[in-house]
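User: Sequence recovery, please. Input:
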């Protein structure tokens, strides 16, 4: 795949995730653009760091599609536009997030099923989809989730990520071994 195609796909993904993060952020309550940028950075652990140049076009598209509504308000002698998520936006967010995790889970299962036999890594990731469902419930679909539930989820999620990291470390070791084996074969041929 060409570098240009790869960059185009990355940009499309960023735009999609930005729009989802806008909807998620507005589930917490109405906000203006600058505050939204800060909240998106916080809630995504700085994985998404929108700029005004990326946020405002996304807000405009979401507003045109009826997912959010903007209202001009006077605040400290200046006008600011405050955005609110609509019912259509809430329903769409929930549907897209559920479909996203279904797809991600299917891809993950397929990928691990292909890698497990090759690298003897096992495939005990059966709790991951349930963990993702819990994440959706706690972080994205419920404004009323208890702080204790959020803490419990984050602890469990961290533990699963550490397990995944262990698998990745083993894969890297196996890849390194394979590279050395192949380099050894090249040396023997010379």
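Assistant: Recovered sequence (190 residues):
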């Amino acid at each position: 795949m060409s570098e240009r195609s790869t960059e185009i796909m990355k940009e499309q993904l960023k735009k999609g995730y930005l729009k989802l993060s806008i909807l998620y952020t507005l589930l917490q309550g109405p906000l203006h653009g600058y505050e939204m940028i800060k909240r998106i950075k916080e809630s995504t652990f700085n994985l998404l760091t929108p700029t005004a140049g990326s946020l405002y076009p996304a807000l405009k598209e979401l507003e045109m599609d009826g997912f959010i509504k903007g209202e001009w308000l006077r605040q400290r002698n200046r006008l600011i536009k405050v955005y609110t998520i609509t019912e259509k936006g809430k329903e769409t967010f929930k549907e897209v997030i559920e479909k996203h995790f279904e797809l991600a889970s299917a891809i993950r299962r397929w990928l691990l099923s292909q890698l497990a036999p090759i690298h003897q890594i096992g495939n005990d990731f059966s709790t991951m989809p349930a963990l993702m469902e819990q994440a959706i419930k706690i972080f994205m679909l419920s404004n009323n989730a208890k702080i204790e539930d959020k803490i419990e989820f984050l602890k469990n999620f961290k533990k699963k990520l550490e397990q995944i990291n262990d698998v990745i470390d083993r894969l890297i070791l196996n890849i390194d071994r394979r590279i050395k084996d192949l380099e050894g074969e090249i040396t023997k041929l010379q």
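The longest strand covers residues 68-75.
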